[in-house]
Design goal:
The protein has about 160 residues and is α+β, with helices and mostly antiparallel strands. It folds into two domains: about 70 residues, no CATH class; about 60 residues, AP2/ERF domain (GCC-box Binding Domain, 2-Layer Sandwich), CATH 3.30.730. About 25% of the residues lie in helices and about 25% in strands. The structure holds zinc ion.
C-alpha cells in the first residue's frame, strides 16, 4: 500500500494528513483494483481492519487520512472506550493530551487548563458538559447527563462514584 500512503501528506500524529491526489465531494478518492474507494476509509482499514460501516472524521476534515482522526461510526462506543482508557490519548495532540480520564479517576472527567472538564461521547460527537473546580462535581454532572440521555454507564454504575 505504498502507492496509497504516497498520496497522503503524512505529518505528526496529531495533525491532519491531507490527501494529495484526486477528491470526490471533498473526500480523497483512490483507485483500488479498478474501483474508486474513499481514501480515508482505506486508511482506516489499513490500520484498524475493515470498518463495520462508515468511517467518520473526528477532525471534520474530509480529505484527512490520519488514522488517529478516523473512527468507525458504528463502533463509536469502542472508540470512546479506548479514548477513555487513554489508549488513544495522543489523539488531538497537546491541546487534548490531557483527555485520558486516568488523570482524574472518573469516567468522562478530564483535566483541561487547570480545571476539571466533563465530556461525553454522544452519537459520535464529543459533547462538552462544563468546567468544574472539583473532579467529583464534574463526575456528578457527567453522571446526570448520561442518565438523562440514557447513554450510561455513569460513574455510579461502574462504582467510581
Ligand atoms: Zn484530521
Amino acid at each position: 500500500m505504498k502507492r496509497f500512503w504516497e498520496k497522503v501528506d503524512i505529518r505528526g500524529e496529531d495533525e491532519c494528513w491531507l490527501w494529495k491526489a484526486s477528491k470526490r465531494a471533498g473526500y480523497g478518492a483512490f483507485k483500488l483494483n479498478g474501483e474508486v474507494v474513499s481514501a480515508h476509509r482505506l486508511a482506516y482499514s489499513l490500520v484498524f481492519g475493515d470498518p463495520a460501516n462508515w468511517v467518520c472524521h473526528r477532525c471534520d476534515v474530509r480529505a484527512c487520512c490520519n488514522p488517529a482522526h478516523l473512527f468507525d461510526g458504528t463502533r463509536s462506543d469502542n472508540m470512546k472506550d479506548a479514548f477513555d482508557k487513554g489508549r488513544l490519548g495522543h489523539f488531538g495532540g497537546s491541546k487534548r493530551s490531557s483527555f485520558a480520564s486516568s488523570a482524574t479517576g472518573f469516567k468522562g472527567v478530564y483535566v483541561e487548563r487547570g480545571k476539571y472538564v466533563a465530556r461525553v461521547w454522544l452519537e459520535g460527537k464529543n459533547v462538552f458538559i462544563g468546567y468544574f473546580e472539583k473532579a467529583e462535581e464534574a463526575a456528578d454532572k457527567f453522571d446526570a447527563y448520561v442518565e438523562e440521555k440514557n447513554i450510561g454507564p455513569s460513574n455510579k454504575e461502574i462504582g467510581l462514584r
